[in-house]
Design brief:
Blueprint lengths: L6 H4 L7 E2 L3 E4 L2 E4 L3 E4 L3 H10 L4 E3 L2 H17 L2 H6 L3 H7 L1 H19 L7 H9 L17 H10 L5 H8 L3
Parallel strand pairs: 4-5
Antiparallel strand pairs: 1-4, 2-3
Helix pairs in contact: 3-6, 6-8, 8-9
């Protein structure tokens, strides 16, 4: 299960099953944000087990997983580094810096979808806003796994001959 761009780490592993986690827990707080997708040989049993445990999940094919992976990366790039850099909660960030948040999201979505040949959903930003609502209180004091999130976006953009100026600028303020 992943919460970052780990594709370069998987190149030596054949037949892996991957999953994108769309639930969050912090102390007593637990909430499902979306259905968690799984792809690979064990996708169906994993999705069924989580769904049985009241965590909606689904098995998807590889191309659908690619599209969803790009979307989840965009989500993770907003709910992390920018909050730490600006020292804001997610709701404060989205209220005061929505243009920046959308740019972070769209840069990530574009380069990740491009990296795997997927088409991003046209309503991905709106889906992000809905999924992020329960997390408005989240604050990040020290962004983690930057090389697998915003740093990966900057590197993927460079490899594609694109720019990711907002993610690049936020990386300069990294911890």
């Amino acid at each position: 299960m992943q919460n970052g761009w780990i594709r370069p780490l998987l190149h030596n592993f054949a037949g892996v099953t991957r999953g994108l986690i769309w639930f969050t827990a912090k102390g007593e707080f637990f909430t499902v944000l979306r259905s968690s997708p799984f792809s690979g040989p064990l996708a169906r049993p994993l999705a069924d087990a989580l769904t049985t445990a009241a965590i909606p999940s689904k098995a998807v094919d590889a191309s659908e997983f690619d599209r969803l992976d790009a979307d989840k990366m965009a989500f993770n790039c907003v709910v992390g580094l920018p909050l730490a850099v600006h020292r804001l909660s997610l709701s404060e960030y989205l209220e005061s810096r929505q243009e920046e948040a959308r740019a972070v999201f769209e840069e990530a979505l574009t380069v990740c979808a491009g990296a795997v040949g997927a088409l991003a959903d046209t309503d991905a930003w709106e889906q992000f806003l809905l999924s992020a609502q329960p997390l408005g209180w989240v604050r990040v004091a020290n962004a983690k796994a930057l090389e697998f999130r915003n740093g990966a976006i900057v590197e993927l953009a460079r490899r594609q001959g694109r720019e990711a100026p907002v993610n690049t600028e936020l990386m300069k303020g990294k911890f």
